[in-house]
Amino acid sequence: MRQYSADLTPPWKKPKPVPEVPAEAGLVVEEPGTGFCGAVIRCEAGTVTLEDRFGKHRVFPMEPRGFLLEGRVVTLVRPASGPVRPSRTASGSVAVPSARARVARAGRIYVEGRHDAELVERVWGDDLRVEGVVVEYLEGVDDLPAIVDEFGPGPDARLGILVDHLVPGTKEWRIAQSVTSEHALVVGHPYIDIWEAVKPSSLGIEAWPRIPHGQDWKTGVCRSLGWPENTGAAWQAILGRVRSYKDLEPELLGRVEELIDFVTTPGD
Questions:
Q1: Which phi and psi angles does 238 have, rounded to 5°?
Q2: Which end of the chain is more exposed for a tag (fewer CB within 10 A), N or C?
Q3: pLDDT tens digit sequence for 164-192
Q4: Quick one: three-class SS letters along 158-180?
């Protein structure tokens, strides 16, 4: 005797299928029941652990249709057991399988602070290791001309410098103009701090707040957004949301790519 399905639910009342997404580390999702939004840090025994931008952890069951990814309902599934080799690096470059880090070049890229260096490493780290480019941070650019003179850039040891808030008429602009070596390139972005180079949409905020002149900018941002006033923890949460070049503003992307090209191209 032929068996028939007992499911008499009309087709228009059945839930539509949703994508199954591997719960890879770093994937940012939202649990709609609680509104908790965070990056995946662990997946085991039918549960997933998320970490929000303040470092708080929550464990959720991986139920069907249980999460939102960029506003769309998805079902999280356990990732494949084997390592997943990305076809592209975080910067968008074609990945080179099994590439070894090149011996460090004499040339360097200098950035203003530790946060700048960590962001550059997060997105361009694979590219920099293949090219043998070392990134160092300066803790400010007030003494930049003397730093460049001490480095002594030349045709085989080019120096690239990334400056925050490089806007005509600013102190940073005047300092950059004083660097005249043909083997040193100073470029910059318009943001007060490297934090602003991360797209607000990647952090779940509408925009970076405007902080009155005279206030510590990072502390003011934390206060304005209702974040704990711990700028170190806030930065780690911001950095955790950066997964690729798509999370950064083009004004930063172009300048870093320009510096990498400059220090890896032999001088005349």
A1: -65, -50
A2: N
A3: 999 999 889 999 999 989 999 999 999 99
A4: CEEEEECCCCCCCHHHHHHHCCC
